[in-house]
Fold these 2 entries.
Entry 1:
Amino acid sequence: VNPAFFEDLLQGVYLDMITWVFSGAGFEGAPAFSLSQWVEFARSKGFEPDRLRGQITWRPTEQERPDWRYTADLIDWARDHAPGFRILQVAAVTAEPTVSLSQMVADAHTCFAQLTKMSLPAHEVARQIGFSVRIGPDYFLEIARLRALQVLWYNLLKAWGAPPTQPAISVEYDPAAYTDEVYANMVRATTMAMSAVFGGADHITVLPYDEGREQLSGRSAAFARRIARNVQHLLKMESYLDTGADPAAGSYYIEQLTSKLAEAAWSRQ
């Protein structure tokens, strides 16, 4: 990862109009160096880093021997040089709702426990954590699962004495959600994106409807990617789903399901 890499990757992209989520060997193996190269590239394009926002996929809780001192130093550096970026990512390693919620809360708790030992205040640790969740096609369950994650996050902040802040949630599709009915996947992509929005996701990655099944669609890859982008455009710019703070609030079924999931996950701690 270097400025030339970003130059090739991001031609024609407005750096300050979208939220960046960087993953891959460079950012996961050398996050400090890779992020510094991103800052250098942004400045070469006339953008001060405080205008840009995003997340890197640094997941110390998934490492066999995590270096928490390095992580604390990385957070200190990013606070001054890339203040719009979150440094820590907590990802669900299973699709099972209760288990995934419990695991994510436990991993976030580990981040608090280890980094506060490094003299980082709890509120600063909270500001650096982002969640990554894979969702499936079960519409109401996925809404409730993301809402339950928010409830659990607020409980965790209270336990650590940190002020309440909205969790940052990135959503990707579970690849198993798509089938060989590629055109039905267009509809499925839309309902899954809706459940993510109603559940409180900040970032959504919509897979092309023929992901892994390109030979079945008879269309170009560019067309499939365009449809995936348009799912988000339609939901935001024409349906205005981004204007409600909690669109599912008040639904008896979703509220009850949210409570059950949150209680079951918290009881596993």
Entry 2:
Amino acid sequence: MAVVNPYLNFNGQCEAAFNFYKSVFGGEFMMISRFKEVPPEYTLPASEAESIMHVALPIGKGSVLMGSDIPESYGKGTPGTLYNIAINTDSEQEATDLFNGLSAGGKITMPLAKAFWGAYFGMFVDKFDVQWMVSYDENNH
């Protein structure tokens, strides 16, 4: 069964925001990675090397607050674009079914495919302008 978690985007303040959230909720980051860790075929300015590519903070019983900085090449995030709903599935088939169902009539921004970090991952904006991320990571099962 799929798990749904909030995913927040930031204009360069992700690390400060998540250190603040960690100070309030407690716990430790499950993961924190920076843009300098992406493969060389993804060209980013050197000024973004230390920016957060992905961070995950467990909260309570099973919830995870996740986030990242928005690369400059994507433009500045604005209200309405600073969040996603992240769905983590139990199989590639479940990911495919949810991705295809929820994206119907919307706009696919990253097709569902194997990502360089090993997950089966895709992103879209649904027909109601809600941003979604769908992921299956066999290493977490």
